[in-house]
Write a structure and sequence with these properties.
Layout (H helix, E strand, L loop, with lengths): L1 E6 L4 H4 L2 H10 L2 E6 L7 H10 L3 E5 L13 H8 L4 E10 L8 H17 L3 E6 L2 H10 L7 E3 L6 H9 L2 E5 L9 H9 L5 E3 L21 H12 L3 H15 L1 H6 L1
Parallel strand pairs: 1-2, 2-3, 3-4, 4-5, 5-6, 6-7, 7-8
Helix pairs in contact: 4-5, 9-10
């Protein structure tokens, strides 16, 4: 059994064909998925998918790329996270690649999400791009080790992975680990302990080989797990069992829903 620890089933490319997407998941042994929120405006869509499907879970948060979104309060995030199918706060974090200039608003939003995660006692889903130093610093300053979480779609160095794991975070690999030019990331995937690893699609983005360039979907997380298994010269089943166990260990609310 596999779990897609990060996907966006409410995005049009998947939502318009959701029954077939869910059928493909099952056919490929992907029995659970976490549908991740990126804005509060779209959160009702995310939650509705989780409510209608016992094997789908939700998170609530505002992605750092959405500059013009109305900011949430800690209290509002905690209230929304109180729903039994909401298992995490995020995705949240920092992105210095897509946006330039004074990004103090991103850092303030990030801190707010961490505080909401601590208040709701739910783990964080972290997005970081070209911002690893500030991401780790703010996590430490805000005491994020109290709830932990996952460094989603990880593309950073082994040193960043080590520091994140020291704060109780898991490292999640996406379809990028299947790309031929992702040499450094493949090395990280060989070093991260299996007990600290998750797999994801980030669908509908970042489809793994052999589907690169096409619309991604949770069923394809099997190719991410297979790539890691091949790198480590271990059976696919070993990666599947470890990452599934890790998912339910981290997202305790998901385990409570089963």
């Amino acid at each position: 059994m596999l779990v897609d620890s990060h996907c966006h089933l409410n995005f049009r490319d998947l939502a318009d064909n959701l029954p077939a997407v869910l059928d493909a998941m099952h056919a490929n042994g992907v029995e659970h998925a976490l549908c991740v929120g990126v804005t509060l405006k779209e959160f009702p869509q995310v939650l509705a998918i989780a409510e209608r499907n016992a094997h789908i879970y939700a998170s609530v948060g505002i992605h750092p790329d959405y500059e013009d979104e109305e900011e949430a309060s800690v209290e509002e995030l905690v209230r929304l996270a109180s729903h039994p199918k909401v298992v995490a706060i995020g995705e949240t974090g920092l992105d210095y690649f897509r946006l330039q200039g004074d990004l103090e608003w991103q850092r303030a939003r990030f801190r707010l999400h961490i505080r909401a995660a601590i208040a709701s006692d739910k783990p964080l889903i972290i997005h970081t791009r070209n911002a690893a130093e500030d991401t780790l610093r703010i996590l430490r300053e805000e005491g994020a080790e109290r709830v932990g979480g996952v460094m989603h779609c990880f593309t950073e160095s082994w040193e960043v992975a080590e520091q994140a794991m020291a704060m109780g975070f898991y490292i999640s690999f996406s379809g990028i680990v299947t790309f031929k030019n992702a040499v450094a990331l493949k090395e990280v995937a060989m070093r991260v302990p299996l007990e600290r690893m998750l797999v994801e699609t980030d669908s509908p983005f970042l489809a793994p080989i052999p589907y690169r360039g096409k619309i991604n979907q949770p069923a394809y997380v099997r190719h991410v797990a297979q790539a890691i298994a091949d790198l480590r010269a271990i059976p696919l089943e070993t990666v599947a069992e470890a990452t599934t166990r890790n998912f339910f260990r981290l997202f305790k609310q998901a385990a409570a829903c089963n």
